[in-house]
Amino acid sequence: MTVPVETQPERTTLSWQRTGLGLLAVAGLVGHRAVHLGRPALLVLAGVAALAGLGVLGGLAPARYRQVQRRVAGDRAVAAPWAARAVTATVVLTALATAVAVLIPG
């Protein structure tokens, strides 16, 4: 089955939005734990994760959408390894920091 070309930018945007929302969800969970345990350092971690999620949602997702639209219209490749690496690193670092935060005895 052939997927219409018009859906490529929208699908890419939705995947970036899901990533940003996932980061915000993790930030909320870590923030809740920070308040529950009274640990300000965890609250800072939650803030950093929230800023990363907002950066993906407000910055990278719209920029990537416009870039994919231009590339599809110009019949060029849409891959952006730099963006994938940047978001992967952000998600992995957030996950590692969150794992450490969850493993701290309360």
TrEMBL record:
Primary residence: membrane
Protein name from the UniProt record: DUF202 domain-containing protein
Coiled-coil region(s): none
Source organism superkingdom: Bacteria
UniProt KW DNA-binding keyword: no
Pfam family, one: DUF202
Domain DUF202: 8-71
Stretches that traverse the bilayer: 41-61, 82-104
Record has Cell membrane as a keyword: no
Keywords attached to this entry: Membrane, Transmembrane, Transmembrane helix
Subcellular localization(s) per the UniProt record: Endomembrane system
Membrane topology value: Multi-pass membrane protein
Organism phylogeny: Bacteria, Bacillati, Actinomycetota, Actinomycetes, Geodermatophilales
